[in-house]
Amino acid sequence: MNLLIAAVIGYLSGSVPYGLLLTKAAGLGDIRSIGSGNIGATNVLRTGNRWVALLTLLFDAAKAALPVLFAQYYWGDQAGMVAGIAAFLGHCFPVWLNFKGGKGVSCFIGILLALSWPVALIFCAVWLVIAFAQKMSSLAALTAAATAPIFAYVVDGEWLAATAGVLAVILFIQHRTNLVRLLRGTEPKIGSDKKAQ
Predict the structure, then answer these.
(1) Residue 134 maps to a domain
(2) What secondary structure does DSSP assign to 38-90, as a single string?
């Protein structure tokens, strides 16, 4: 029962569409009509407002981290991991938006921060290295996600590695169109005027 409660709390927290709410509050319109149509920070950045994009990133990370910390405090580490996965699903597939949400990078970071901050820092470091080297946000996110379970296992153990693995699979699914473009060599680079879908 505790795990079910943790999952419900996680999903409800994760499904709050901060990217949509913040862009509307800032007078930037409906983020779903811009770029990829996703509600995450990367797409919010396409509005040209970096502060709103930064706030979206922070809020998306927090909405994933807080239910993890709550469940972890009351019911233990495994409940925290369940809450994290549920929050991630809520962000990617929010019931309020016909199950079309963000791609989950910010939430991934928030969950890792709550469960094991060293792994979160490694995730961010991998993202930054790839992003600066290749100038592709999607490739950076996919690389960081793919390596997260490995670092999670080394730093914390098999339970965190399994959790990171589940999150990575979902993130890859959310980036499936990016994967196709990466394979074709047509993925736009950071700062490109081309709209990513």
Answers:
(1) yes
(2) --SHHHHHTTT-HHHHHHHHHHHHHHHHHHHHHHHHHH-HHHHHHHHHHHHHH
- Asked if residue 64 lies in contact with residue 84, where contact means CB atoms within 8 angstroms, the answer is yes
How many Å apart are CA 90 and CA 85, to the nearest integer? 9
**Structural domain boundaries enclosing 68:** 2-184
Question: Tokens 């793919």 belong to which residue?
Answer: 146
Residue 189 domain flag: no
Please check whether residue 44 is in contact with residue 52, taking contact to mean a CB–CB distance below 8 angstroms.
yes
- Note the pLDDT tens digit of each residue in 60-74: 999 999 999 999 999
* pLDDT tens sequence across 9-23: 999 999 999 999 999
Let me know if residue 197 belongs to a domain.
Answer: no
For the stretch 112-151, pLDDT in tens is: 999 999 999 999 999 999 999 988 989 999 999 999 999 9
Token pair in block for residue 159: 């339970």
Q: Is 191 inside a domain boundary?
A: no
Spatial CA neighbour of 87 closest among 77, 73, 101, 75 = 101
Cα separation, 159 vs 177, whole angstroms: 29
